[in-house]
Design a protein that fits this description.
alpha+beta; Jelly Rolls; 2 domains; 4-stranded antiparallel β-sheet
């Protein structure tokens, strides 16, 4: 459970850590189950103790647009829906059987009311810098894949290459060529 607080997003006293742990609700999520669907308002943050999740939009009945990938020992949420309290446009779906700890918005507010130290949890609501860099910079396919290798290599163990390619906004064929090019270096 200490890994929940090891993300470097704050300093908490032992009593504050106990408060946080008591506010977290453990949940087992089966493969394919959705924590959030389009039209629902994101009411919780989740810490992934084990497992992996895909955040996506449906382009049509067959294709998905991968918005984000989440692996164990990370916090996840639909940032836009949670912060604005507006309906989500995306799904958050378990890619495999997973164990998470849920922190609801109500529990978060209760924690902040008990100690201003919990305002440090607001860092979890900020878009991750790595995601911003990956998609705001005009990176080549090679640079995108290298960025994942350097900053989120656990994605490569958790997801098939087709999903990684969709996440990087490149075709699976392009990803294969990129991997081949990098391995020949």
């Amino acid at each position: 459970m200490s890994s929940i607080l090891s993300g470097g997003f704050g300093n908490f006293s032992l009593s504050e850590m106990d408060l946080l742990q008591s506010a977290l609700l453990p949940k087992e999520i089966t493969k394919g189950a959705c924590l959030l669907k389009p039209g629902q308002i994101c009411q919780s943050l989740y810490f992934i103790s084990s497992g992996s999740f895909i955040q996506f939009k449906e382009k049509d009945e067959i294709d998905q647009q991968i918005i984000d990938l989440h692996v164990d020992q990370e916090w996840m949420l639909n940032q836009q829906s949670f912060v604005r309290q507006q309906p989500s446009e995306t799904f958050i779906q378990a890619f495999m059987d997973s164990h998470v700890y849920e922190l609801t918005i109500t529990k978060l507010h209760e924690l902040i009311n008990r100690s201003s130290s919990f305002f440090q949890l607001a860092r979890l609501l900020e878009p991750t810098p790595s995601r911003i860099k990956l998609f705001d910079d005009q990176l080549s396919p090679v640079a995108k894949y290298q960025f994942v290798l350097d900053h989120r290599p656990s994605l490569l163990q958790a997801f098939p290459l087709k999903i990684i390619a969709s996440y990087l906004k490149i075709t699976p064929e392009t990803l294969s060529r990129v991997r081949e090019k990098l391995s020949s270096r």
